[in-house]
């Protein structure tokens, strides 16, 4: 890995984002999630997709366990009092900022 990280040393936090409750996509997008959800037969048409679970499965393919991942579980689309959402508010939406940190262990 570029920074010398080992999967077993990572601590991952997934903050708010659009939830499976609100993230519905058309067939042209849904089909791209088949590799992550082989158990689903509905990914050839309109479907709701769980982006958090997609990320968790991607991380798992790279050696990260679910115990290393903490999710906030808040939908930025539903929680309009707390979060901005372009999908919900379009041009009126504000912006959110995300930070990623790398800490060297001593």
What does this structure look like?
- The chain has 106 residues and is α+β, with helices and mostly antiparallel strands.
- It has one domain (7-92).
- Helix content is 18%, strand content 9%.
- The protein has 3 helices and 4 strands.
- The protein has helices spanning 27-30, 51-61, 86-89; strands at 12-14, 24-25, 47-48, 69-71.
- The chain has a two-stranded parallel sheet.
- The longest helix has 11 residues, at 51-61.
- The radius of gyration is 16 Å and the shape is flat.
- The model has no long low-confidence stretch (mean pLDDT 86).
Itemize the secondary structure elements and their pairings.
Elements: E1 12-14, E2 24-25, H1 27-30, E3 47-48, H2 51-61, E4 69-71, H3 86-89
Parallel strand pairs: 1-4
Antiparallel strand pairs: 2-3
Largest sheet entry: 2 strands, parallel
End-to-end Cα distance: 19 Å
Shape field: flat
With strands numbered from the N-terminus, the spatial order across the biggest sheet is 1-4
Radius of gyration: 16 Å
Class based on secondary structure composition and strand pairing: alpha+beta
Number of strands: 4
The proportion of strand residues reads 5-15%
| Number of contiguous helices | 3
- The low-confidence runs, each spanning 5 or more residues with pLDDT under 50, are none
